[in-house]
Each structure stands twice: as C-alpha cells, then as structure tokens.
C-alpha cells in the first residue's frame, strides 16, 4: 500500500487470506496503480506477493506517466454479466470520461514495448541489492524507527523514540521538514504522515541511487539537528 505510508504485508499474508475470501465468495480487487509494470521486479505486484486477484486496476507506469491512461482488467465472468445486462436494456451503461483515448493508448503500447525491449524488469532486479543496502543503512539513524520496502518502493518512518517507536506530535511536521531539507539538497521525495516514501524511476542507476541516499542521509541529519533545537522529543 503506497499512499497509506508504504505498508508491506508480512510474507504469506495473501496465501493465508485468499482461501478465506474464496470460502465466503468475496472477490479480490488488486490495485496495481503503483506496483504494476515492473516496480517490484515483476510485471505486477501480485506476482511478487503471491496474490491471485479477481480484478486488477492499473495506471501510472502503463504509459510511464507521459500521458494519462488507466485500465480495469476483469475476468470473463465479469464481462459476461455486463454484456448480458447490456443486451437486456440495449445499452452498455458504463464508461470513463476519456476511456480509450487514442493518445494515451498509443503511449501505453509504446511504453510496454520499451519495457520489454530494454528489459526493465531485469534492470529493476539488478539495482535492488543497492537499493536494499542503502535502505538498511538508514536503520541506524536516530530518527528512523522502521524501514519498509518491496522492490523499488520504500517507506522510512521517522519516530521520536527508537525504543518505544513513539511518534512525533502530528503538528510538528517532522517528515515535511525533512522534505524541505532534502529539496535544499537537490532531491524530491514524498512525506506521508511521518513516513518518507521513496519510489524512484525504474531506470535509476546504482550511482544515482547512491546520490539519492547520500542526500537523504544528509537531510535526516539536518532534521535531527532541527528536532534537537526545537525540543520536539519532549513535546
């Protein structure tokens, strides 16, 4: 889950829960807007996490974000139900405002073609050891309570106390302040609550990852100094 703070389920979670869903006839919707098209080292996050979804929603990397395009992938029994009801009323009463726009669709086809030609999946897998190595180094920082990742997406959670994982008061805006320090050093990430989300381009090189993490470490040091000066740990 990206926008919720990069929450990574424990190993075996989906394998355990899917039989329960099937038993109660609960359909499984897979949101691949962030994790789809290579982000986790496979074409879809479902492959990486052992998921077997009934439907899949995709966007973002479908066109490498050069133009808006999204899609909902459904199994035959979904489509057949829609088709049967449409035949009854004489109209397929469903659609998107810009559904099937030729510009977005053309770019989607070309983006996927480039992913295949340039072996983007292979590249993501090749830089993951460096990504994971640099993430692990952040765990020793006095502000970092937890590091979470799956493929080339990670969350670095900032805490006031490492032992108890006590959070900073929300009004302190510690992660936002860290983002400001980071931008001063020439890099842009995203703060989600007190979690710093890292979701770099899938074509990023090992050298560029080192540059990114060097700047993030410097920004964390800047933030630690600010936290101490402001007395935020005692707030």
Task: Map the helices and strands.
Layout: H1 13-23, E1 29-31, H2 45-49, E2 55-58, E3 71-73, H3 76-89, H4 102-117, H5 120-138, E4 144-149, E5 154-158, H6 174-184, E6 190-192, E7 195-198, H7 206-230
Parallel strand pairs: 1-2
Antiparallel strand pairs: 2-3, 4-5, 5-7, 6-7
Description:
- The strands form two sheets. Strands 4-5-7-6 form a four-stranded antiparallel β-sheet, with helices on one face. A three-stranded mixed β-sheet has the order 1-2-3, with no helix packed on it.
- With 235 residues, the protein is an alpha+beta fold.
- 25% of the residues are buried.
- It has helices at residues 13-23, 45-49, 76-89, 102-117, 120-138, 174-184, 206-230, and strands at residues 29-31, 55-58, 71-73, 144-149, 154-158, 190-192, 195-198.
- The protein folds into two domains: 13-117, Type I PLP-dependent aspartate aminotransferase-like (Major domain) (Aspartate Aminotransferase, domain 2, 3-Layer(aba) Sandwich); 121-234, Aspartate Aminotransferase, domain 1, CATH 3.90.1150.10.
- It has seven helices and seven strands, in the order αβαββαααββαββα.
- The model has no long low-confidence stretch (mean pLDDT 94).
Helix/strand/pairing category: alpha+beta
- Radius of gyration from the CA trace? 21 Å
Q: From N to C, what is the helix and strand string?
A: HEHEEHHHEEHEEH
Q: CATH fold name of the largest domain, please?
A: Aspartate Aminotransferase, domain 1
Average pLDDT score: 94
Instruction: Give the percentage of residues in beta strands.
Output: 5-15%
In whole angstroms, the N-to-C terminal distance is: 30 Å
Largest sheet: 4 strands, antiparallel
The CATH class of the largest domain is identified as Alpha Beta
Give helix % range.
40-55%
Low-confidence stretches: none
Full CATH superfamily name of the largest domain: Aspartate Aminotransferase, domain 1
Summed up, the domain count is: 2
């Amino acid at each position: 889950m990206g926008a919720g703070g990069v929450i990574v389920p424990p190993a075996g979670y989906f394998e355990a829960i899917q039989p329960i869903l099937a038993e109660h006839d609960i359909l499984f919707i897979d949101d691949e807007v962030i994790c789809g098209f290579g982000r986790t080292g496979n074409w879809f996050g479902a492959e990486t996490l052992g998921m077997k979804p009934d439907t899949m929603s995709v966007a973002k990397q479908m066109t490498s974000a050069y133009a808006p395009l999204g899609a909902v992938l459904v199994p035959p029994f979904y489509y057949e139900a829609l088709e049967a009801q449409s035949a009854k009323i004489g109209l397929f009463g469903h659609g998107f405002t810009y559904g099937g726009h030729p510009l977005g669709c053309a770019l989607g086809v070309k983006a996927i073609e480039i992913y295949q030609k340039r072996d983007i999946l292979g590249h993501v897998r090749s830089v993951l050891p460096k990504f994971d190595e640099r993430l692990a180094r952040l765990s020793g920082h006095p502000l970092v309570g937890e590091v979470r990742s799956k493929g080339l997406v990670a969350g670095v959670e900032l805490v006031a106390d490492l032992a108890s994982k006590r959070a900073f008061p929300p009004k302190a805006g510690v992660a936002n302040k860290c983002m400001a320090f980071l931008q001063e050093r020439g890099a842009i990430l995203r703060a989600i609550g007190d979690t710093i989300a890292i979701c770099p381009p899938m074509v990023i090189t090992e050298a560029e990852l080192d540059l990114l993490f060097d700047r993030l470490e410097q920004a964390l040091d800047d933030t630690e100094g600010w936290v101490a000066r402001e007395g935020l740990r005692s707030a």
